[in-house]
Design a protein that fits this description.
Layout: E1 13-22, H1 27-35, E2 41-50, E3 53-61, H2 66-80, E4 83-90, E5 101-107, H3 112-124, E6 128-136, E7 141-148, H4 152-166, E8 169-174, E9 184-187, H5 189-193, H6 198-203, H7 209-220, H8 226-235, H9 244-251, H10 258-267, E10 271-279, H11 280-290, E11 294-303, E12 306-312, H12 318-332, E13 339-343, H13 349-354, E14 357-361, H14 365-370, E15 373-375, H15 383-386, H16 391-400
Parallel strand pairs: 9-10, 9-13, 10-11, 13-14, 14-15
Antiparallel strand pairs: 1-3, 1-4, 2-3, 5-7, 5-8, 6-7, 11-12
Helix pairs in contact: 1-2, 3-4, 7-8
InterPro entries: ACT-like_dom_sf, ACT_dom, HAD-like_SerB, HAD-like_sf, HAD_sf, PSP, PSP_ACT
Biased composition (Pro residues): 406-415
Catalytic activity: O-phospho-D-serine + H2O = D-serine + phosphate; O-phospho-L-serine + H2O = L-serine + phosphate
């Protein structure tokens, strides 16, 4: 067979050598060692291990030594106790890898029919799956598809339908270098970073928690103007001693995974910010405790040691949150494309829209409908998977610096 003198990766003779079987140390070295000495050129090499089952493929430009390479591979596979497949071919995949995207799928559980629909939609879109990687086994199962030939915006819309029908979460983001490098991550606080609504905790001290909770729910669902609802709710706090703020600080509970999320982002050199329609008296302490770089929230007026029922200065509303994200990004010298926003309420929508990646976290329906992607599992550190960070990488980093890792419980099927 005549070998074409090609420099663009087409019309060349190839030999694909694949071994499969039980994984163990030294397989790759043994196989490649057996294939050495024949002046073959490695064009590609891929290896994957699933539940200790190995698949290793080496694509070679064999030159004139096809038969010798076949024999050497057979001897190595026999010695290793692995199955061998050798295929001769012509040409390598020189298809353009433009339109790179990362599709991250989260499920608890993640069922085969849901994954089948995702891969079918990617194919129908005209994109190619170049690589598949598992990012987590627990507390949710997360798989990342590295694809090419995609239009991110339209594929995001198409896969959103699958997410809704199958009860899974799917994020579609630009791939390649867009997935790497420093970012700014900005979080809402109430019902996002923490599990409660601070104003409801404050209202419980004056017996008006139910009334305030109802107004809060309507504001977060987009049924009421946020600023008007905030001022009305704060009025109910008039006369409370400022000491209740200390009690509320003690009562605040972080969302599961919040510390892990922030800790991991900081390890990566990312900048983290909090933007809240709540109160800086609580948000500022949370930021200090977690080592967060920026914090913006409303400030309560306190006179003679008591709350007056008013806020001081400009209200941090829907537009104010988006403005804060832009200002944080400008301070950090980052383009908006390098920002991530996470929130749950209607007053987060502008911020989610402005960010390079907007994540609706256990959000109200109106927010899930409009956000780029949604996460509906109760673990805030699941957002890390959307950035391509695996559970193993998180836990290895914790182990390296002695941080105790508390694994979340594995959800029951159908949770």
């Amino acid at each position: 067979m005549t070998e074409a003198n090609s420099t663009d990766g087409t019309d060349i003779q190839t030999l694909s050598v694949t071994v499969t079987g039980d994984d163990r140390p030294g397989v790759t070295g043994t196989l490649l060692g057996a294939l050495s000495g024949f002046d073959a050129e490695v064009l590609d090499i891929q290896q994957v291990v699933v539940n200790r089952h190995l698949t290793l493929t080496v694509l070679l430009r064999p030159g004139t030594h096809v038969d010798q390479l076949r024999d050497a591979a057979a001897v190595a596979a026999h010695r290793l106790g692995l199955d061998l497949t050798v295929v001769e071919g012509t040409g390598v995949n020189a298809r353009s890898r433009q339109g790179r995207a990362a599709v991250v799928v989260l499920g608890a559980p993640l069922r085969t029919d849901a994954v089948s629909l995702v891969t079918s939609r990617i194919a129908d879109h005209g994109a190619n799956i170049d690589r598949i990687r598992r990012l987590s086994r627990y507390p949710v199962t997360t798989v990342e598809f590295d694809i090419s030939g995609a239009d991110v915006a339209s594929l995001r819309t198409e896969l959103a339908l699958v997410a809704t029908s199958e009860g899974i979460d799917i994020a579609v983001a630009p791939g390649g270098l867009a997935r790497r490098g420093r970012r700014l991550v900005v979080l809402d606080v109430d019902s996002t970073l923490i599990q409660q609504e601070v104003i409801e905790l404050l209202a419980s001290h004056c017996g008006r928690e139910a009334e305030v909770a109802e107004v809060t729910a309507r504001a977060m669902a987009g049924e009421l103007d946020f600023e008007e609802s905030l001022r009305a709710r704060v009025e109910t706090l008039a006369g409370l001693p400022a000491s209740v703020l200390d009690e509320v600080r003690e009562a605040v509970q972080l969302t599961p995974g919040a510390r892990t999320l922030v800790r991991t982002l900081k390890r990566l050199g990312f900048t983290v910010g909090l933007v809240s329609g709540g109160f800086i008296e609580i948000v500022g302490e949370l930021a200090d405790d977690l080592g967060i770089d920026h914090a913006r929230a409303n400030r309560l007026e306190i006179v003679d040691g008591h709350l007056t029922g008013r806020v001081i200065g400009e209200v941090v509303d829907r537009a104010g949150k988006a403005r804060a994200l832009r200002e944080f990004a400008e301070e950090e010298g980052l383009p908006l494309s390098r920002t991530v926003a996470i929130g749950d309420g209607a007053n987060d929508l502008d911020m989610l829209d402005v960010a390079g990646l907007g994540v609706a976290f256990n959000a109200k329906p109106v927010v899930q409908e409009q956000a780029q992607t949604a996460v509906n599992v109760p673990y805030l550190d699941s957002v890390l998977y959307l950035l391509g960070i695996s559970r193993e990488e998180i836990e290895e980093a914790d182990l390296d610096d002695g941080t105790p890792t508390q694994a979340p419980p594995v959800p029951h099927a159908g949770h």
